[in-house]
Amino acid sequence: MTLSTSILLIIALAPLAGCLLAGFLGKAIGRAGAHGATILGVAVSCALSFWVLYQLVWGGAPVYNQNVYTWFEIGRFSASVGFLVDRLTAMMMVVVTFVSLLVHVYTIGYMADDDGYQRFFSYISLFTFSMLMLVMSNNFMQLFFGWEAVGLVSYLLIGFWYKRPTAIFANLKAFLVNRVGDFGFLLGIAAVLYFLGTLDYGTAFASAGSLVGRTLQVTQNTHWDAATVICVLLFIGAMGKSAQVPLHVWLPDSMEGPTPISALIHAATMVTAGIFMVARMSPLYELSDGALSFVMVIGATGALFTGLIGIVQNDIKRVVAYSTLSQLGYMTVALGVSAYAGAVFHLMTHAFFKALLFLGAGSVIIAMHHEQDMRYMGGLRKYMPVTWITMWIGSLALVAIPFTSGFYSKDAIIEAVGASHRWGSGYAYFCVLAGAFVTALYTFRQMYLTFHGKERFVVVHDHGHGRHAHDHAHGHAAAHGHGGADAAVSPEEHPSDEPGHGEPGVLHHPPKESPWVVTLPLVLLAIPSLLVGFLTVGPVLFGGWFGQAVRVEEANDVLGELAREFHGATAMALHGFWSLPFGLVVLAFAITTYIYLFNPALAGRIKRALKPLYVVLDRKYWFDTVYFAVFARGGVALGRALWKGGDAAVIDGALVNGSAGLVERIAAGMRRLQSGYLYHYAVAMILGLVLLLGGYWLIGQNGQ
Amino acid sequence: MPNLTDLLILLPELYLTAAACLLLLLDAFIRPEQRNVLHWLSLAVVLVAIYLVVANQPPFPVTAYGGMFVRDGVAEILKVFALLCTALVFVYARPYLADRKLYVGEFYTLAIFATLGVMLLVSAGNLVMVYLGLELLTLSSYALVALNRDSAQSSEAAIKYFVLGALASGMLLYGMSMVYGATGTLALAQLHGAAAHTAMPNLLVFGLIFVIVGIGFKLGAAPFHMWIPDVYQGSPTAVTVFIGSAPKLAAFGMAYRLLETGLGDLAPHWQQMLAALAVLSLAIGNLVAIVQSNLKRLLAYSTISHMGYLLLGLVNAGPEGYAAAMFYAISYALMSTAAFGVILALARAGFECEEIDDFKGLNQRSPWLAFLMMLAMFSLAGVPPLFGFFAKLLVLQAAIHAGMLWLAIVGAVFAIVGLYYYLRVVKVMYFDKPVEGSEVRVQPDAGLRVLLSVNALVLLALGLYWGPLLGWCRAAFPG
């Protein structure tokens, strides 16, 4: 059994077809047509992705690695479209298309009243296409294309509600921060081409060994190890896309986009592209201990310190966003200790439970009529049982309760870091352990604040809708007057956008469970959040499931060490009950339960007592402030200086205006030749003839 | 005596001649309001001609009438695209002509005769055939330019075109006579290799120079370009779009037949001359285009610069260069039909839509047409990943491989200069505010809209998938 090119092409192109249909013919095919076309496209992709995975794992199909189309070749540089489909790719394809499919379905309910309905479906299908191109690529060019394309869609979607200033600020920020990462990434790709002479994965990895001992001469006496340079540069790209410290600042702000996007792009798939990329490049990373240490330290820092910020957030989506940052840190740490399989395994489980948590948060936001502040929630469990239960499942997976899928992946990472001897692994071990405690703190806090305790909102039965100037033109006005079963409310209205909904904690209707298109994806995501780890941990993590897709040197193989102590998923989970991380989770559970269920006043007292710490976290370690002061303002100042000094005087004055002036004078002169007089034209022709004859007389003849 | 084989080889041309005569007759008998019949018939005639060219394609080059007429890969490709362009022009032109009381049978028959000239020219195997094909093409073109008899501008353009064309034609004929004098033959195939045996090498080169003047005029390469801006601007746009497409393919075919098939031995001479013409064309075309405010005139200067790039391919004087130049000619023909097509789609009775200012804010009025125009402009400018980019890349490569790196650098520099005026059109469409009080009314003709969209999107598609076309071009020039 072998993989067929046409099936792979259909997988990649079906979402693109949906995107084009919804995007260009959106008006013609209407809302139902738009979601029908895009969902069909993604569903086809998803089904075929499962088929491909089946063929690879059970059908014994060999790895597929072929160029499908060569666009152009210039010297050794060639731009082609090709697919490399092994188990790593197949797993990513399944995760991407599965989550994307559920998010498509969920969007029907979530965006029901948005004017940009078709545009939204077109974007998310375009995203799915781009992401598939990224993960299925067999060369760096296509990887870069997918990389930039998902970035573009992310930019478009963060600013989806482009009339909101905060959304514009957020998408600009995401764009700029990602440029920093992409610059490193592009340099990394250039370094690959420079040292290895090819952009094809297969060839590059096969000749990766030749990098050993090669250096990049920076100055007379400074030589940098080639593999380290390549790996660090590529990782800088991953830092931007996967939001690693210090390029993480864009991700929390990206929550300005609609919630389905937060779930799909900014939690489950795109932000994990960096993790996937490093795992894919494992043959290169294995050559450089230095680069892996760098990766590990960056990841560990993110895992702990961004998690801490999550504790002080009040916006339900932002808690999940900081949790995403922290979990991305975990994956990165795993990469740093050469546990690539562990990182990708966590990527997969995280995709399920984090998408679940985001979509659950979205469901809560729908019910709360675009209120995102958890201080005005509480006691929601009796209004929306499905959301409540599924979100608890996601939360248990997130805090890694044994037997949930999150446990297997996260515990393996913690164990792997503990077993590693790489420089910095002590620090990393501390970070991931403390991170487990912190994760439990913010997760339980979020669940209690949202679903348990007293209701901190009031329902005012006020039917005076007439006096509310609903801004329907704005594109996503709420549909609370309709009351129909499927009149899902488009949330996230900026409070100031709509008069009458400005007072926090005041609802006009009691919260109610979301429609089935919203809850069905929650249930479908809850199942893998619970089970996928238990079912797959053995082969995927410890069974060398990825085969040749990831390469680990013998000396670095921490997962191999762990595998010797692995006696089945059940034993691992039972053992998990007696491990330190689980103890920390129980401690966090006890603390949060006491504070938020029995003694809510305590939270405020602790906040006051630890005021300095609270301020540090609330200000997010002043990353934004510093960036804004140094880069944004400094950039503007530098720009102004260069503009006045360099640009205006030298470039504009001498080069641009000077040369433009020259060109214009020449052009004006030549234009005068075009006098309109017939005899001038004839003379020009004769002159041309004379010149040719004269030229021949002077040069041509001597040449003979 | 002509035998059946000769006739069969000539079938597409014979068919087109007969069809054009019948159309002419028919035109005399139908009422003006039945003109649509003529339109559709003409279109059908052209499409059938394409079919005949493709279907009867011999597997290897064949000649008819003792070598007068050649049917090979080069001729086939050029004919297919010339006919295709003519068909496009018919569809694009109809609403424009109808709005201006120019919707007459002459337009169709003249255009078909001109296309017939193109077909004979690119299939010429003999100097006389070259001349006959050329005259058929140019004489029909003069009449087409003057189609709008009441317009002083058109008549002036036609007179200028005619006088200068006659001058160029005379020079070409004079050159041919010298070549004949030096070699004693008119057959291109026999000319090849004759240079080594001629007793009068100087006379032969003199003949070559006069021939090059003729080619330069037909291509519109500087300094033989003076007619182009006036004719492009002066003609009705429906005629300009024709002059800018199929005849450019013919000019390439004529240059190839004369310079390679006939005077290939003299390549070291004509390479230098063509290089000089290329540099002049690039400079004059790109620089003067910058100061134009009339879009048709701007496109005329852009044509001159594009012919400079086409010459870059010819300068290579090898199969690679010829393939690149032919690829370039095809790409130019498709790009210019798209660009002029947008002008035609926006023009209406009493409004030509040929000033750049007329395109201000087009994106707000008609985003789709603005997008199509942007594709055409980007492709003309050579922005990847559009068709024009690869065409430019190939001719630059051909020049480099011919050892003329300096020429390729000149070409690249002027490509950057050229970006300026193409981007200006895009800027005007997307970033300027529409002129108050002006309105945009896109021609409602469905054929025009659909084909124009396809035409412009093909520029993108062929940019992404250009391998087969290039392969086809390369196969026509076996090393």
TrEMBL record, chain A:
Q: Can you name one GO molecular function term for this protein?
A: NADH dehydrogenase (ubiquinone) activity
Q: Where is the NADH-Ubiquinone oxidoreductase (complex I) chain 5 N-terminal domain?
A: 71-121
User: Where is there biased composition of kind Basic and acidic residues?
Assistant: 491-501
Q: State the UniProt keywords alphabetically.
A: Membrane, Transmembrane, Transmembrane helix
Q: Where in the cell is it found?
A: Endomembrane system; Membrane
- Look up the record and report any one GO term of the cellular component aspect: membrane
The region called Disordered is annotated at: 466-508
- Transmembrane regions: 6-25, 37-57, 88-108, 120-137, 143-162, 183-202, 222-240, 261-279, 291-312, 319-341, 347-367, 388-407, 427-444, 516-542, 577-598, 678-699
Query: Where in the numbering of this chain does the NADH:quinone oxidoreductase/Mrp antiporter transmembrane domain appear?
Result: 137-423
Q: What is this protein called?
A: NADH dehydrogenase subunit L
Gene source species: Fulvimonas soli
UniProtKB/TrEMBL annotation, chain B:
Its placement in the membrane is given as: Multi-pass membrane protein
Which residue ranges traverse the bilayer? 12-30, 37-54, 74-93, 102-122, 128-147, 159-183, 203-226, 238-258, 270-291, 298-319, 325-347, 368-391, 403-423, 446-466
Summarize the protein's role.
NDH-1 shuttles electrons from NADH, via FMN and iron-sulfur (Fe-S) centers, to quinones in the respiratory chain. The immediate electron acceptor for the enzyme in this species is believed to be ubiquinone. Couples the redox reaction to proton translocation (for every two electrons transferred, four hydrogen ions are translocated across the cytoplasmic membrane), and thus conserves the redox energy in a proton gradient.
| Enzyme Commission number(s) | 7.1.1.-
Keyword field: Cell membrane, Membrane, NAD, NADP, Plastoquinone, Quinone, Translocase, Transmembrane, Transmembrane helix, Transport, Ubiquinone
Instruction: Fetch the PANTHER family from UniProt.
Output: NADH DEHYDROGENASE
Assembly and partners are described as: NDH-1 is composed of 14 different subunits. Subunits NuoA, H, J, K, L, M, N constitute the membrane sector of the complex.
| Catalysis performed (reactions) | a quinone + NADH + 5 H(+)(in) = a quinol + NAD(+) + 4 H(+)(out)
Name of protein: NADH-quinone oxidoreductase subunit N
Subcellular localization(s) per the UniProt record: Cell membrane; Endomembrane system; Membrane
Name the predominant localization: membrane
A Pfam family annotated for this chain is Ndh2_N
Any single Gene Ontology cellular-component annotation = endomembrane system
Enumerate the spans annotated as NADH:quinone oxidoreductase/Mrp antiporter transmembrane domain: 124-413
Domain spans labelled NAD(P)H-quinone oxidoreductase subunit 2 N-terminal: 9-89
GO terms classed as biological process? ATP synthesis coupled electron transport
EC class of this enzyme?
translocase
Gene from which this protein is expressed: nuoN
Q: Name one GO molecular function term.
A: NADH dehydrogenase (quinone) (non-electrogenic) activity
The species this protein belongs to is Fulvimonas soli
